[in-house]
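I am writing to request your help with a piece of structural work I have in hand. A protein sequence and the structure tokens that stand for its backbone fold form the material at issue. Please examine both parts with care and let me know of anything in them that strikes you as inconsistent. The record follows directly beneath this note.
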Amino acid sequence: MSEPIIEAGFASREFIPPPGLSLQGQFYLRVATGIRDPLEAVAMALRQNNVVVVMVTLDLCVLDEGFVRSCQSAFEQDHGIPGANLLIHSTHTHVAPALNAALSAGLGMQDIDPAYVSAVKLCLLETVAEAIKRLAQVTLHAGCGKAEFLGWNRRAMFNDGSSQMYGHSEMPGFAGMEGPRDSDLPVMFARNRDGRITGAVFSFASHPNSMEHGLKCSADFPGEARRQVSRTLNGIPVLYLTGAAGNTAPSVLDPLDRSQPWRGEEGLIRSGQYLAKIALGVITSSPPAMINSTLALERTVLEIELRPWPQPEDPSHPKANLVNEETTRIYRLVEADWPERLNRQSPARVSLNVLRVGDVVFCTNPVELFVEFGLEIKHWSTAGVTFVVELTDGYAGYAPTQKAFGRGGYEVWPSPGSFLKIGAGEQIVETTQLMLDRAGCGRPLSNAGGDSE
């Protein structure tokens, strides 16, 4: 009996923000002064036996759940496909105009521009429609490269029991980095009946913030990586997915490299070219076509409580002596608003997807997932290639480890970007593992006790 046919279609479109909008990604107001490079929506549509699933990426810092639901509703109305079959991912560039009002609240940012939100939605829906229009029979191919020199853990531990974002080896009391990194660079691409590559997708687990303090709109190094791959492969659409990167970044901290080769304008270009070279290496190695092309989507929506404001002696309490005056002011405003936030936002909806595409699986979540959790998910998966994809279908803030909560630092201080209860990351991992089991690519129980990567 022959395997069912798999079809794929890819498309991309640019969206140009108007001048003067607030940029999202920092704890202070930044107003865009121009555009360094285009922001894009890139879509991959897959179809098998009348089941269609679409994944689309946007060059935004984070998504807004209301925006996601609105796009999924319009998608269902336009195409007669369940809205949940549209997966929307933000690449997490820190130099794109704000779309999430809840994250901007209290940070001194301007109101979200409704015209900009409408333009992004239109671009997304047009890109998705084009990808569906281009659906055609393909063979799918996949492999995994290694990026050994980019994307390090950014949380340094100190002898007093604390941890600090962007702490480094030359600071007094430095005791090492708190966690690991993930060097995997998974790749999947499609070939049409003529053997031509029609689209590709790849991923890496690092904050994409070479230009995090910039004032010009940019897709940061994901955009550069996409462009390099696309140019080499005759202009095909390329999706970039940010992996479990809640505590990883381009900064070289142990041992400290003062030149920071992956930061700034040159670092953006260098990072993009480096990742593109690895992705192209996987593609040009000519991995064989998948024999099994099963298309299946598992979806779960968790309701996770927000955590209470910590006591002053708790490591997760924002410490005034570790932040500047303006940041201290912001945390005081956040603390005053916290009871109301609990009333209006708890429990938070956390949408998880496991998309199986033959020997490849995409595991998505809407949080800034610590890399340790991404490695746990990969260790459980029996797929030939596993993508762990954060910041998809909404935004639910950081998901730090228990160890991080016990040591403090920015990612665990309660804020509009860190609010889920302690243990949320573990709950996301456990649920994703169950979904992998249902999708037929979870680990056999006899192997479940092995060490994680």
Remarks:
- The chain has one domain: 7-299+348-441.
- Residues 264-284 form the longest helix (21 residues).
